Task: structure prediction
Amino acid sequence: MNTMQHMRRGAVASIPMIIGGIPFGLLFGSLASSYGLSPWFAVAMSAFVFAGSAQFVALGLIALHAPIWVIVSTTFIVNLRHLLYAADLVKFVKHLPMPMRIVMGFGLTDETYAAVRPMYEMGSADDKNGHKVYLGSFLSFYLMWNVTTILGVISGELIPGMSEWGLEFAMVATFIGIITPYLKHNAFWLCLLSAAASSIVLSGLPNNLGLLVSAVIGVMMGYVADSSNKTTSNSDDNMQEVSK
Amino acid sequence: MILWQGVLILLGMFAVTFGVRFVLFARADKVVMPTFIEKALKFVPVAVLTAIITPMILMPNQQVDFTLSNPWLLGALAAFVVGIWRQQQLLTILVGVLVFFVAKYGISL
Result:
């Protein structure tokens, strides 16, 4: 297979999440215009920052006239989860040249991680072609996100009530579509339930800190359940299966 | 917002976002992950994504709304059931979105 074919495989694996992302990008663009921000600001943010949920949080803070350091540090916290994705992908990128790693770092999103990571597990992506598959996923998301932002800015000016429609539910459904395939093992259920419960309990914490703390709690609960299981059964085999 | 503020916000957001995503890739050939971290990392997507969406689903108006008149809850439950049952991402997303919009607009008509 040549480079284009590998890239196409990455794009194809991403199609469901690209479709789920379209309403979200439209909403982002339309929110920016309903907040009275310059269309260029929204378009530039999608082009240079390229981080869906962080862009939404930032827009909300800008609308509240929050200071710049608050906007930037909140962005940092909302995106900290990508550090965990990167940690998981290190073993697959360490042999790649630096410019390739820079591009892959820029394009590291929930969706591309969710699309490409299982392909490494299944063997349909490897050291030789994994970065091409990844680029195909990243570029198709990048194209979708920027086009829908522009369309959202335009339609937000034409259709004023658009930001009230609940388009962000598409992100919820997309993330549920990413989560459910993992739930074949008790440890993942425990991870889900504890992260969900603590995210509600901690929702009052400022600057999305509840998100970060809940994520850590979920990971720890899953890890503990997983390793206490391991002493009694051969759950390693089950885990392999889950990742597919 | 004036121009330099906008530019500063974008530069700052770019720097922290790219920084977080790239810092480990930059040292990827030297970073060695301890085994327990490797084992914990596989729980990251479920934990993070759940923590993002649960407040959106259960607290659409800043208070817990665990009733069937909450379209976020209905849509999410539908997506979840389909996701567990069929494991097809596109179907999960479409059914969830459909149920959400029917609950939000269909019922109130």
Observations:
- The helical segments of chain B are 3-26, 35-41, 44-58, 71-86, 89-106.
- Residues 27 and 33 of chain B are 12 Å apart (CA to CA).
- Chain B touches chain A through 68 residues (CB under 8 Å).
- The mean pLDDT of chain B is 91.
